[in-house]
Specification:
Chain A: Pfam families: RNA_pol_Rpb1_1, RNA_pol_Rpb1_2, RNA_pol_Rpb1_3, RNA_pol_Rpb1_4, RNA_pol_Rpb1_5. The complex is a heterodimer. By secondary structure, chain A is of the alpha+beta class. Chain A has 49 helices and 45 strands. Chain B is an all-beta fold. The chains are: A alpha+beta, B mainly beta.
Chain lengths: 1395, 92
Amino acid sequence: MNGSKETITDSLPKRVKQLEFGVFSAQDSKKLSVIELHEPNLFDLSKPGRPPARFGVLDRRMGVADKVEKCETCGLGLQDCVGHFGVVRLALPVFHIGYFKLMITVLQNICKNCSKVLLEEAPKRTLLRRLRRPDLDSLQKKDILKSLNTACKKVSKCPHCESLNGTVKKVGALKVIHEKFKKKKGEEEAEFRASFDTAVEMDPTLKAHIGKAQEDLSPLTVLRLLERISDQDCELLGLDPINGRPELFIWTALPVPPVCIRPSIGQEDASNEDDITVLVSEVIKINAIMRAILADGYPAASLMEHWDYLQLQCAMFVTSDLPGIPSHLQSNLQKIKKGFCQRLKGKHGRFRGNLSGKRVDFSGRTVIGPDPNLRIDQVAVPQRIAMVLTYPERVTDYNIERLKENVINGTEKHPGATYITLANGIKRFLKYGDRKKLANELRVGDLVQRHLQDDDIVLFNRQPSLHKLSIMSHYAKIRPWRTLRFNECVCQPYNADFDGDEMNLHVPQTEEARAEAQELMGVKNNLVTPRNGDPLIAATQDFLTASYLQSRKDVFYDRSQFSQICNYMFDALLDVELPPPTILKPMKLWTGKQVFTVLLKPNKRMAISVNLETKCRTFEKPKSIPNSIHPAQLDPSMCPNDGYLVILNSEIMAGVVDKSIIGAENKKSLFYTVLRDFGAVASANCMNRVAKLSARWLANQGFSIGIDDVQPGEVLRREKESLIVGGYATCDDLIQQKAEGRLACAPGMNEDQTLEREISRILSGLRDSVGNICMTELNKYNAPLIMSLCGSKGSKINVSQMVALVGQQIISGSRIPDGFIDRSLPHFPKNSKIPPAKGFVRNSFYSGLAPPEFLFHAVSGREGLVDTAVKTAETGYMQRRLMKALEDLTTHYDLSVRNSTGGVIQFTYGDDGLDPAKIESSVQPVEFPRNLLHAMSTYLDLNEAPLLPYQILDIFKKEKTVKFKHCSSEYVAALERFIDEELVSKQAALRRGLGYEEALEPSRTAGAQKLKNRITRRQFDMFLEICQTKYRKARIEPGTAVGAVGAQSIGEPGTQMTLKTFHFAGVASMNVTLGVPRIKEIINASKTINTPIIKGHLVEKTKADKRAARVVQGRIERTTLESISEYIEEIISPTDCCLRIKIDMESIGKAQLEISLETIAIAIVKTSKLKLTETQIHIDRPDAIIIKVNDMGKGDTSEMFQTLQAIKRAVPKVVVKGLSTVNRAVIVPVGNEFQVHVEGYGLREIMGTEGIDGVNTQSNHILENWKTLGIEAGRKTIINEIVSVMQSHGMTIDQRHVMLLADLMTFKGEILGITRFGIAKMKDSVLMLASFEKTTDHLFEASFFGKKDAINGVSECIIMGVPMGIGTGLFKLLSKVNRPEDVIPPAKQLMFDQY
Amino acid sequence: MNISDKFTLSLASTAVSGSGKKESWRDTSNQKSLADEYDYVMFGKVYKYDETGGKNKATVYVSFGGLLLMITGEPVDVLVGQEIYLLMRKNT
């Protein structure tokens, strides 16, 4: 018997095919257990040393919890004994709290007399047939069971045994009653009540309570009922009749878990027991008492009390938080902290804390620091970390010498080794023993656990890991000291700085893992973010400053200086060819820009010739010189700030090198161009050189900031003073205007709002103009100015805040509100609206803030802090939900996107099957203009004949069907359009301008007329070749985890969204929720949203007519009776009692409302709350309505008066025109037409409103779009809304990610939010749902219905520890079939085909 | 140099007349060169040729290591990428 409890080790490879959930019966738990417990004491106090009591909860036969003792069942110690179950046989059955709700549903479905399902035979059969369909998924099954439940709840008489059945209800925490007679009172009830007669006789006080008596379903009764359910009915209830019979869900025996999962914490002589241990011993104690009561026949009341107590204790065993425990039991119930549910639940529970995320070996963590001398794909690992982390290297002929060295060095000296695993499996520790001998005995095939060495592959990570770039693979570089160091260029993807951040390091332990890490997570392979294809790894901060300073026009070097600078960047590892000097005479001088020429292309053998034209940050359009011979349209490189970069074959022709050239998140940057045209290695090399060059050059040059950098000049001071005085005066004037009531309201605003807006506008204008003066006044060597110009640190606003003025302080979008009564601070008069009273700071940080200013500034600063704190929690949860919903979506070999069960989400990823990370322009995978420039610059050959426009067209027409056969039609069309516009038409126009033939048609003479801006055959061929190869490379790879990448791409920008939650859309002051709150609304698919807005276009005919718009507005906007009536009077005469409502017909006419007395009358009648009939309403022409109050034939005048009053109160709120779901409608001029924007719901009604062009009307409410226009409209709305939110925050996300999210939310045919309810409808896997939210609910449900989990998805695979079917796990090995391809194999004969 | 000073400025595609080969900038002492006759010499490249001005008018953009020259005149036979010397001499 004991042997069967041990784990059987088996060397055969096995695979978990599926998990089946279910329950143990009482027999099972008894069979599984080694002892039956009946001793309530934990320790045997009678014996010396107080050993655990025999048959007690700590009995050693269930395993041991301390290191010395041995298990009495298997004889093993703590390390090896797996533990053995015990069992407590319960005197009376109790409910299992986990299955309680589900069991009640079963009870509701069956007859409480004969245990049959409360349905006729026919509907039973149809339901059963539906349940037995093989392709049923769990959701459909749930629906069927729900319909069964609703049907059964309606039945009050069992169709089988004719007995009464009422509602089954839960009362208190764990009690069920059956209200048999609630619905049907009759003889049976009388009989039931009569059964209490004797009791009443004995105790007359009971009589009052008899009426309330109901049938009590005690665990024992329920058990008997459930046992009698037939197998077929079990199936109908969704249960497994063999393994999951309903009576199993009532506890008759309590399994006691092994000691090792509830260890005692021993201290000296006292020991602290685990909650579970305490609980079980309590159960044993009560159990014994109950047994005694049953045997000896104590009063029943005491038995019931104990039974209830046992019930609660058993419930606590499962979960410790039981809401609604009866108070009389609560007092003597000792609360335990952790039941089994609590062990599983939550962030640190088993599922999320131990199964989905595990602690790992071979990892390290320390503070990080910068080191520009490292390559971007390196990380400096401190030697003391390198001596702990090891890599198991297999000995080969090639590394044996090195590994011998390592072995000799041992554990204490780097580079050493810690263990050797010999080929025969014996492990040797290298701290002690004769290492030289071991080294000599090292053979090929042995495994050496050697220290981390240079160029080992490590994974580097910084939390929070919001996107895939938060974990990347680096090459280790072992260095002294204690910090992890890396190139500053890699800060951005990790979002790291060096103010004390720590980062983690992991060492992959196999060659396969290393290879995969390097290919998929290598820094060089992740220079761009998959969010939108922007480069993330690029120069930052000091690198930008240095590059900018060096590339300015006034930098010249002589030969020695130039050579020295060139050598900064190559570490003497590369041949450097000096370019010819710019100035030859009087002395040879090189310019700073030429340094970058060397940087890009150090010598002629390097095949890197970059061609790029782009605007720098300081670009300004050059003004053409009037009346000169120069062209009217100057080339942008003539920009006065040198703000247009031109690179021709790796030579910088013009422009400065600033953030937009070598910075991150710009697709027109230099590094991105190199990356796309010459590969990641070339790009990374350039970055390495920039880093070294900048760091070393700047170290010699020096760059510092001092107090004199922020001193305002005389001009600035004067100008600022006059501007502020002027601005204040304007504000005072406005305030005065408002006080006198002369202020004209802006549309859709009241006076206060108008004033606020105007003042804010003036003040922000004030700051801007002072700021601009400040920027022009500072000299070009001013450090803050340089930094803000080149983009390395600080913006213009930061500089002007230091030098000029700080400006208006803002809290939640408005000026500082009142903290005191009617004023912000007691320093100001009440109700003061002047700028200083509402938080305008006129001082600069240099001049110092006045006390009130300082406070306002602090207030505004605090808001920012609070906002970030709140937002991180919110976005973190959003990210988690997104990830859980999208984690197992992946592309397959047909480029379709499917979930883990194979369900199709998209037929082609993103409609074109392209990878968002490889999109070069904003939409196409190739940026045509730049690549054309590149092709043209590559072949600069005077002798080659140029192509004529018609020749270009001919070549492309031919290639279209050959080279571009596999490209999407949109791509080819875009390319064709580009060639037509940028090449053919331009060339033709040029030719026309020069008086040549246009040559759009074949011409023999045109060939002699050659253009200078020409394109040759070789250039054009190269361009087409680039267009083709880049498209092919941009296709998404099968197996890509597009879901995970998409979830990260949407979630990660959320964390960066600043507090701007609202913004103004146009004049009408229609606020739209933006930022994280809006994203949340969208992905939650919320029913009520903050700002529902419907944009209604007017029909074509009346588009430009404001009057028509006003009429439509009147039709939509809610008009209540009170707003169109002059007065309401009561008329009480001896004969009559009525209300007379005087309608203001004039204002109705003015507002062009389509309201007549008749429509008002109808509206009043239709308002059901008033309970008025048509006969009571009389129209009193010309302009009044009379409502008569009936006396109901009773003649009770006081009642009539009261009715009159009630109607009088209610009638003003009657909606006489418009939609009640609408808050307000506003006319908005858009271009030269008018639109009606509606705040509120009711898309369908608005589309149907006369005068509205229903086809063009759109709502921002997703569910409404879906319900009105269908699921595709819902999908489109999701996409549009997410994109527009991101756009408003200046963030770009590739369409494909948003499309995937929208498709996931809609692929079931209804809109599912990314919430626990939505996700539960998308996925089937129990483990996945359990690891998300409501862990225990999902587990109990799974075991109740005997669910199975096939371990397909990502979460399940991680929990089970098997490789997942995503990425490199996608492909499976198929065997080769030895038969001709076109022969279909003969059909197999099935068993019954023979008959 | 001051305003209204007179000077000679020439642009040339080669500094050493007649030599078809690429010229070295390192050591020109023993070669006869155009530069000998000028005080100030720069070396650069054409990076743009604008012929949108119509007949008989063209604009050439030259960059001397980032120092820019725009010159408009009658069409000349230069092409983007071509190397150019700028030679200057003060007229006395």
